[in-house]
Amino acid sequence: MRDCCSCPRYAGRRWRWPGCFFGQLLFPYAYAYQDYYFYSCAVFLAAALGFFLSGLLDSRLPRWLVWPLLAVPFAAQIATYRGNYYPQQLVKSDGGFAFTTALRDFLPKDSVIIVVGADWSAIVPYYAQRKALMVRNGLENNGEYLDRAFADLVDEDVSALVLMGDQRHNYFVIQRAAAAFGIDTLPSAVHDRAEIYCSLRYRDRFKQDLRAANNLWDMINEPMAPVAPPAGPFRVRPTTAQTAFPFVSPAPLRAYFQYGLGYMWLDGQKIIFAHPDSDIWMRAPGQATQIEWDFGLVPDSYLRAEGRTDGVEFSITAMSARGGVREIFRRYLDPVARPSDQGKQKVVVPYLPRPGEILHFSDRAGPNAAFDWTYWARIEVK
After folding, report:
1. Is residue 353 domain-shared with residue 241, that is, in the same domain?
2. How far is CA 353 from CA 134, 163, 317, 329, 348, in A?
3. What is the DSSP string of 310-338?
4. Do residues 76 and 133 share a domain?
5. Could you report the per-residue pLDDT of 189-223, keeping only the tens digit for each?
6. In this structure, what is the dihedral angle of CA atoms 206, 212, 217, 218, given to the nearest 10 degrees?
7. Burial class (CB in 10 A: 0-12, 13-18, 19+), 340
8. What's 268's DSSP letter?
9. Is residue 194 located within the same domain as residue 246?
10. In terms of domains, do 285 and 203 share one?
């Protein structure tokens, strides 16, 4: 007698559960790192639909009901295509974004751009029609890597630095590119997806051409407000505190950053770039017992062959409503002279607040402020 399991009608049944298991295990993980894996997810969805339709054919439902049910998903696909994708296919478009159009039309054709925040994605250089150095994710603040990569472009005409996504306002990269290629330290144009920092050789003409093109409708042809450092401490509004200071608790009342509020990434964590002088003021929680502060200096500030930091002082003081000031914590980091000061410093300071006290977190340069690339990773008073 013929084994029913070898029949083509039943051949797929033995693979249904393993297929579902490995699909659930592998593809969500891959999707988390490569967003184009939704195509693979669609393959599994199509396979599931196929199993369902095959089950209808295997069922004991009357044929007059099975065939209309089989037609439903195909009719739905056709209707979805006609209502959504087909109209989009009728639109004539060159693709890309306004900022890639600006790069393509207003910078020298044989020049090179540096892109940070897009990893290996070829979308920006493809639509900008420019050769590009794509800085790898996680290496944006690695000075040794950037120096080596920038050195490979020594005989190229680097016309612009493009910072995308969470790498916008990454002052560490901006300063390195400015020193290596004469890139402007203020953005020449801003898009909701990217900032463009042009070479000083092309900046003025680029801005003029972009303005003549009506800023391509959705670009800003002026520096954004956070780029221009405030003249003094600024108030932190409750509505913006969570966004601007997500790793500071409680939310600060005021802040000051001599070179403007900016961020960078270090060891996979987004941190505040707090080059001296930097300050944050916050109201002390009444039931607090300790202060936790994670801070340090960017490794490149003390691992460079030359031009290294001479140290930064970090301090916490408490100010009372009557004007009294008491010191809670003070430490001078000198990572060149003391290897123990290298890397992220995690301090836990016992603290008993007094009524109405305001805590003041600050860092100050040593004898020389050069290369004092300081960061604050977390502040928590609890």
Report:
1. yes
2. 49, 42, 11, 14, 15
3. --EEEEEEEE-TTS-EEEEEEEEE-TTT-
4. no
5. 999 899 999 998 899 889 989 988 888 888 988 75
6. 20
7. exposed
8. T
9. no
10. no
Residues 6 or more apart in contact with residue 258 via CB below 8 angstroms: 229, 275, 276, 277, 278
Q: Report pLDDT for 69.
A: 87
Half-sphere exposure of 330 toward its Cβ, with a 13 Å CA cutoff? 5
Whether 111 maps to a domain, the answer reads yes
Q: Which domain holds residue 344?
A: 234-381
Distance of CA 141 to the CA centre of its chain: 12
Kindly state the tokens that stand for 198.
Answer: 């042009």
Query: Is position 292 within any domain?
Result: yes
Residues 196 and 266 in one domain: no
Residues 290 and 268 in one domain: yes
Give the DSSP per-residue string, 170-235: -HHHHHHHHHHH-B-SS-SEE-SSEEEEEBTTTHHHHHHHHHHTGGGTT-B-S--GGGS--SS-EE
In the block, tokens 């607040």 appear at: 353
> How many distinct structural domains can be found in the chain?
3
Residues 89-108 pLDDT 10s: 787 667 789 999 999 999 99
> Residue 8: is its pLDDT beyond 50?
no
Residue 362 tokens read as 């600050």
- The residue among 69, 89, 109 that closes a domain is 89
Same domain, 215 and 259: no
pLDDT-based confidence at residue 365 (cuts at 50, 70, 90): very high
Q: What is the pLDDT of residue 3?
A: 47
Q: Is residue 365 part of a domain?
A: yes
Helix, strand, coil percentages (3-state) for the chain, rounded to 5, are 40, 25, 35
Other C-beta atoms within 10 Å of 158: how many?
A: 21
- The answer to whether residues 254 and 354 belong to one domain is yes
pLDDT tier, 38 (very low <50, low <70, confident <90, very high otherwise) = low
Residue 226 has pLDDT above 50, yes or no: no
Residue 229, domain member (yes or no): no
Is 113 strand, coil or helix? strand
